[in-house]
Amino acid sequence: MKTAAFIPIKANSERVPGKNFRVLNGKKLYEHICEHVKQANVFDDVYVDTNSDEIAAYAKKQGFLVIERKPELVKNSANGNDLLVYQYEQYPDYDYYFQLFATAPFLQTETIKKCVDKLTYSAEYDSCFTATAQYGFFWLNNEPINYRPCILPRSQDMSPMIEETTGLYGISGEALKKYRCRIGAKPYIHYVDKFEAVDINTEADFKMAEYIGMHYWKINHNGEIAENVN
Q: What is 3-131+164-200's CATH number?
């Protein structure tokens, strides 16, 4: 059984110029997920898909393989499915394909390990992704979608809305070939907390990540308080 991780990291960003090169907690944004993937040590191969010479050089120093980003996949019209399908077509011999993003700097190594183990050692699931369970009152297109305002339920009694964190996706090669999508027909949903779910797509997201990275406190196994978790 062979697994591969693909980390797409563009040189350009329309909404947050230079986003992947900005410093967060003393490291450039793209370094966080690369370090966590390397520390997890659960993939046979790790590919960084980029159009940046700096990022390509960094990836090679980490022992990763480099894919030169296809020009049409640099455009904002390209999405995660397009990327993973293209990468599958270039490297079709893996049993499992995982996609991780630089915009999820706080995704932890243990989460990566758990997702890989759950997918690769289970016959029940053909894919996986990280998500949060949101309890609240949600609307779409000016209409309520998970409750009736005239019959107001307690929020703790409501079924949660599931939100993808866009931090990690995994899928079997067979399912990826069949569905040409990073989520198959039988996904395992791995829930993470709001710290790990941080996803940087706007300037406001980056400011929030800076604040969380500076002030987030976490209790370790000794009962002591650790600061600047990343």
A: 3.90.550.10
